[in-house]
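Worked problem 6 (solution included).
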Amino acid sequence: MKDYKTGIYNWFGYIMAIEERIKLIKQAGYDYVMLWWEDEYYPYKVDRREFNKILDSYDLKLDNVHLPFENTNNLWSESSEERNNHVNMIKRWLYECRDSGVNTIVLHVTEGNEKSFDYSLGYDSFSKIIKEAEKTGIKVAIENTQMLNYTEFILKEIDSPNLGFCYDSSHDFVNESSFGEILNRWQNKLMAVHLSDNDGLCDRHWIPGKGHVKWDRIISIIKNTNIKSYSMETYPFESEKNMLPIDFLIKARENLEEILDCNL
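Solution. The predicted structure is:
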């Protein structure tokens, strides 16, 4: 009997109502779900504050909620008005999440690549966010995206039990990323994972095992942390797009479990 839990992001590449996606995730044998914090509008509106209730109705557990990252670079803006507006929006989301039964959120530190920011401005923004997170009891896991220097700066400079790390394996194995080093450095702060694979050329988010992510190294690190679920953020590859959603979900889980069984 397996002694680990598996999860998946609630958007996995098929257009259907959120409740139908959640139902299929349960049927496919997952334990946890990751959510995106925006209202759903297809085929009808579902308020984001109702998402966790849907999980409860299918006896699924919430791993974490990913906050929107549009205009995230405003957190580093030279305009205090832009910075404060974005900080205040995130603060509002923190309280929404708390009131909806969420205990961990995932946040991007920056957006894009080859940009230069004043470190002190980002420090000011994230300090305010983390102080608010401490008030709400929410854990904030910041994700490795393209500009790792800013993610690592925040992890180094802000000391709080409410600040941690979200590791995305596809982001980490593209072009000149860290290939597991950032996970190794920040494993003591690991709060969440987005597991998927790629070809090393682009952020593909393939099913684990289809690409060149070094799973033996990655799992050997993660297994010594306190994460509650080995959760995936994955979408169908070209050859998988004609699969039924339930079949894709089962295939993804079975691939992940095969990797876990070989490395745990």
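Discussion: Residues 80-99 form the longest helix (20 residues).
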